[in-house]
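[INFO] parsing input record for Response regulatory domain-containing protein
[DEBUG] input buffer:
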Amino acid sequence: MGPAAKGLCEGGEQAYCGGNTGLRPRARLLRGAEGPTVMSIQNTGAADAIPGLRVLVAEDNRVNRELILAVLRRLGYQATGAADGAEAIALFDAAETPFDLVLLDLNMPGVGGAEAARELHGRPIPAGRDRPVPLVLMTAETDVIDHLTTGLFSGYVAKPLAWNDLDALIKRLVALS
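[DEBUG] output buffer:
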C-alpha cells in the first residue's frame, strides 16, 4: 500500500477513488425489514465493529482493494479481498465460515459486480440464518438505478467511500439478516 493510502487508513475519513473527487460520498440502504426502502445514512460515527463479522470485498483496482481491506480491518472486521467477481464467487463458495456481507465493485473485468451478484444470489442461505448474505454494490457511477432495482443488492455505496457511512451500512444490513 502506498504512503497516501496508508496515511488515509491511519486517520482519514474518506477515500477518493478514481477521478470522482467532486462527488459527495453516501451510503444507501435499499431493502429494510419491512420491504424496499431507500434511506440515506449521513453523519454517522464509526463505533465498534460487530465481533467476528466477515466481509468479502471484490474490487479490481489493487490500491482501492487494499485500502478498503485496511480500513475494514481497522474498524474491526475480518476482511478478505478478491480481484474480480469470479474470484469473489470462488472465495464465497470455498469459505468454511460463511461471509456475513459481500461488497461488489460494479465494473470489473471478466465477471463484474452485477454478474457476481446474480451468481451469489442463487446460493443457499447459510446454516443458522434466515436471510441470504447481503450483497452491497460499490461504484463511482451515478446511473445505477437499473442495478439497484433487480433485487440482487441489499445496499449501495458510492465512491468515493465515506468510511463511517460504510461501517453504519454494514452494521445495519447485518442486523437485518
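[INFO] Helices lie at 3-11, 62-74, 85-94, 113-121, 145-148, 163-176.
[INFO] shutting down worker
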